[in-house]
Design goal:
Elements lengths: L1 H14 L11 E4 L2 H11 L4 E4 L14 H9 L2 E3 L6 H11 L6 E3 L1 H5 L1
Parallel strand pairs: 1-2, 1-3, 3-4
């Protein structure tokens, strides 16, 4: 957990200078609600945080919608549980093909 917060602080810290006061706050997209809650607790009102998998949905079966892919395209930072859920695998594919340009956190990032 401590590593996660350190990584998030570094990522948000690098994004903050790119955003002026007149612009919107950085968008952080989390794959699941608990991760979104951690980010929101850590950064408060300095970021906009949303999550992808709705409450009650099976995270091992859930698939991204077209509007969620568009949301991911707008994200400054994308936080995953490590990359094992289908949604997170799709995020990795979209990142690899260049559809998503925001910073992403996968298992390798947590290990570092």
């Amino acid at each position: 957990m401590k590593r996660f917060l350190i990584i998030m602080i570094i990522l948000i810290g690098t994004l903050t200078p790119l955003t002026s006061a007149a612009e919107e706050k950085p968008l952080v997209v989390a794959s699941i609600a608990p991760l979104a809650a951690i980010v929101q607790d850590a950064f408060g009102d300095s970021v906009n945080v949303v999550y992808l998998i709705p409450p009650g949905a099976d995270p091992h079966e859930y698939q991204l919608t077209a509007s969620q892919i568009e949301l991911l395209r707008k994200a400054s930072v994308i936080v995953t549980t490590g990359g094992h859920l289908p949604v997170e695998k799709k995020i990795a594919e979209l990142k690899a093909e260049g559809t998503i340009t925001g910073e992403t956190l996968f298992l390798e990032d947590y290990k570092r």
